Amino acid sequence: MVTGQRLFTFAVIADTHVTEAEAMAISGFDIDTIKLGAARSRYVVDRLNSLKPDFVVHLGDIVHPVPGSPAYEDSAARFHELYEDLDCPLYLVAGNHDIGEKAFPGQGPQEARATVSDDKIAIYESQFQTHYYSFEHRDCLFVIINGMIVNSGLACEEAQRHWLETLLGENQGRRIFIFSHYPPYLSRADETQHYDATDEPGRSWLLGLFERYAVEAYYAGHVHNFFFNRHGTTNCYVLPSPSFLRHDYHELFRVEPDAKQGRHDGAKLGYAVVDVHHQGHLNHTLRTYGRCLESGETAPAENPLPRVHALQPNRHGVGLYLRQPWCDSADIPTPWGLDAFRRKRIRNDYPLMALWEMGVLDLRVPLDDLADPETGARMAELAALGHRFTAYSYGLPTGATAEALKSKGGILAAWEVIAPITSAPDLLAPMAALKGSTPIVFNAHRASVEAFSSSHGLQADARDAVEALLAQDGAQEVIDGLVFGIAWQEAPAAAIAAIRHSIEGFGLKAAVHVQFAHRKPLDRGETERHDANRIAEAVVSSLANDSMTVFLDNFTGIDRGYYFSGGLVDRLYNPLAGACIVRHLHAALPEGCDLGELGENEHGRAVALSRPVGVLLLPATNCDPAVLPGAPPRDAGRWIDLVSGEASPARLTGPTLVLPN
């Protein structure tokens, strides 16, 4: 887990694929992709200079033309021209486009000519940097390796192996970060060999080094998409490109790709900023949305709010109900190497990326997820990093789910038992037998109330029901918390205040489910306005009540079936307005808040903050803020539009937070 103060920050970029100015080097790619690459790199350089990292590491595929091709040297010169404006040291990793492809069985003459060789390495080093090396910064060791020569049989492979093993042995016990172009794997250490990962026996050798020397993090590119794995104690990251997406990976999503087969899915383009703390680090994957900067242009100022991450020390905020699959896999039809002759089943890690960037730590899932071998293993990985999982079951689990609760329940923050309140007397004894050390929250569902699911819990003002439940023999020893539900038309702040009263003095935790799903299809604009205000109010209410866990049920929207809702993210797991609101409130109120009075009129609602002094404004329509109850003068404090994170416009267009300057 990450603890202590931030010590320093570095940045990581990958797969810029810069090509020469005439933009003719990327065969098989549309001309737009090629011409946008330089402008997108220029934008990244501008952003990095504003973020002021101590240094930057480039993970390879610096240029697109391969060594020996006519455009290679011109493309290298163009890269240096673009990145010479960087205000900090830049360390380069060789990619397959920079130094030659990895070898694989069954190569034909054309593939063999493209494979890494001593000649290609010499050409790379004449234009860039040595192909493996190390450097130190603030008592940490940073190691650059050439992933293409692993398994190559070249003499330099053995030289790199000896150098790396010696270097790590001499630095055992230090904090070590390793960078390469190829990831060791994308989803599972035992996954089949494929074009986008390190083949055996090199993979096992590399993973063995991670284990033996407790490597803190391993960074790779090549795949132009985000992936995260935890191998032992090593965090393994695969980063997106700021230039274009590998569109074969759009197979991860259940929707049709956008233009250019998804290659320009701008929300998936980006780079990483890494905050190194006293213990551990936080990887912030920053989306660029494909933004460009032409030569001589100045980028406009951007969102001034600080970065947030779910795994930040002392993190508290709103949680999410992951009703739909959150780590499922798909077969990726990559056409290169031998991938076309095998199954290449890869997990979708974009839900995790979205959760991290929103700062969401608490997650609610069905107990079936714990019982599923792959999902359960993923839960254990994330729980070890600090995520808190509440797993729910209707009544008592049986079979594999009961066994999972017994054997793996220790990773859960809570086991939520859903049942009619009248069933509690018969369930208490078997619940006690199953719970072990896992806290139990009891969800007394109201069968008479129609809702998206039967897990909406007690009404907010239910102190009598709480007293009656706890009067049952053994209830106080078995039940650690209760679930309360806030229906779609209820105001979260007032309801949460009533819930606090309902449990006061009983020594119970409250899990609060804020419902967004509704039965009747509504006009999209009407739904989005209602949901945006409701999300903002729920998040500040959660931040004001750190003894409660508040779950929103709208991580992904519902546009089919019998209920409907908007989502925080879309079907590509790209952030919508709701995700931005969650992230910006977590960023603006890192120490939480205390709420004051609530105000409402025909123009909207206002939630006063007493710590820090401020107000959350929730306009029902676009309006002059002066018409809202409790709105301060426009020149008082910072006015933050919670969708953009920037200064709010003169007429409010959505939830707005006003804080002291």
Protein architecture, described:
This protein is of the alpha/beta class and 661 residues long. It has three domains: 9-287, 4-Layer Sandwich (Purple Acid Phosphatase, chain A, domain 2); 319-589, Alpha-Beta Barrel (TIM Barrel), CATH 3.20.20.80; 596-659, no CATH class. The chain has 17 helices and 26 strands. It has an eight-stranded parallel beta barrel, surrounded by four helices. Strands 4-5-6-7-9-8 form a six-stranded mixed beta sheet, with helices on both faces. A five-stranded mixed beta sheet has the order 3-2-1-10-11. A hairpin with a 2-residue loop joins β8 (227-231) and β9 (234-238). α1 packs parallel to α2 and α16 (524-543) packs parallel to α17 (577-588). It is globular and about 80 Å long. 49% of the residues are buried.
Task: Please sum up the structure shown.
It is built from 17 helices and 26 strands. With 661 residues, the chain is an alpha/beta fold. An eight-stranded parallel barrel has the order 12-15-16-17-18-19-20-21, surrounded by four helices. Strands 4-5-6-7-9-8 form a six-stranded mixed sheet, with helices on both faces. Strands 3-2-1-10-11 form a five-stranded mixed sheet.
